[in-house]
Design goal:
CATH architecture of the largest domain: Alpha Horseshoe
Number of helices: 14
Structural class: mainly alpha
Number of domains: 2
Order of helices and strands: HHHHHHHHHHHHHH
């Protein structure tokens, strides 16, 4: 392991410049000139705090679904800043599980869910899941739409499908907890929430929910 990998001054310099002048486009351009995704994935797990923060932020913008495991590992980093960057990074790399056209459709599904147009979201997400059955984020978004449409059992199936494809998908584990709680299956709900926290220890609201349910059990 080289000293450059342990503490990469060029990457840290780019990161600190971004903090002073927060231009995503400039940050991406500067990182891309010197690093590929594989190198960033190595750097995200090595060296000092600034080194790891810089690499995780870079992977958020430049990484793809193959960076999922590195992001998931960073959720358990000793540094809170790395953990918070990794949590945001997970959402980005999860969305990149499909090709460009599928990512575009996923974006539309997300906007429909955010706008409360769950029936429309189900229609598009169901079709996307049929065409791309290994796209975990599509299953997750389908599960969200089904849950808020009252199709709770379908939501459970979709969330389980998302987790089977992407075992680091803590949001799907949370979704399962909500769905099981809606069905008054408190045992399964608690197990799902605990699993979510094991994947992402930074889920304070879910951790509080777990403690509350344990007190009441």
């Amino acid at each position: 392991m080289s000293s450059q990998e342990n503490q990469n001054p060029c990457l840290v310099k780019i990161f600190r410049r971004y903090l002073d002048e927060p231009s995503i486009a400039s940050f991406i351009a500067r990182v891309s000139d010197s690093y590929n995704v594989a190198t960033l994935e190595r750097l995200a797990q090595l060296g000092n705090v600034d080194n790891r923060r810089a690499a995780i932020l870079a992977l958020t913008f430049l990484g793809n679904y193959s960076s999922n495991r590195v992001m998931a590992k960073a959720l358990h980093d000793s540094d809170r800043g790395v953990r918070m960057l990794a949590e945001e990074g997970c959402y980005w790399v999860w969305s990149r599980g499909g090709n460009a056209e599928q990512q575009h459709r996923l974006g539309k599904i997300k906007r429909l869910n955010q706008g409360g147009l769950f029936r429309d979201a189900i229609a598009i997400a169901s079709e996307l899941c049929k065409q791309s059955p290994d796209y975990a984020e599509a299953w997750h978004q389908l599960g969200i739409a089904e849950f808020f449409s009252g199709r709770v059992e379908d939501s459970i199936q979709s969330s389980w499908r998302a987790l089977s494809i992407n075992p680091f998908h803590f949001e799907s584990a949370i979704g399962l907890g909500h769905a099981y709680l809606e069905m008054d299956d408190r045992v399964s709900a608690l197990e799902s929430y605990q699993h979510a926290v094991s994947l992402n220890p930074n889920l304070e609201s879910i951790r509080i929910q777990v403690a509350k349910m344990q007190r009441l059990s």
